[in-house]
Amino acid sequence: MPTRPGRAVRILRAMTNNRLLAILAVVLGVILIVIAVIYWAEPASSLPSFFPGHQAGSSHHHVKHGIAALLVGLACFAFAWFQTGPKRSTAET
Fold this sequence. Notes:
The protein has helices at 5-41, 63-84. By secondary structure, the protein is mainly α. It has a domain at 31-83. The longest helix has 37 residues, at 5-41. The radius of gyration is 21 Å and the shape is elongated.
């Protein structure tokens, strides 16, 4: 039975796309967890001006913003984990 190079290329391309998505999800997850720590450690006046919740002269810590960033970061890690897991093979007829 001759091999079909077109099919192999499609499989390789799909694997590359899944791997790229997993890498991007891990990077985004790390960034979001760092943002969560910043929200918990810094008062609102010390946050960078592009962060939601920045208020000049405020000593309030945005705990809910930090929790949200942490949960979304963990969701990115879970997405990457499921993308890199073993694939179920389908029976070919």
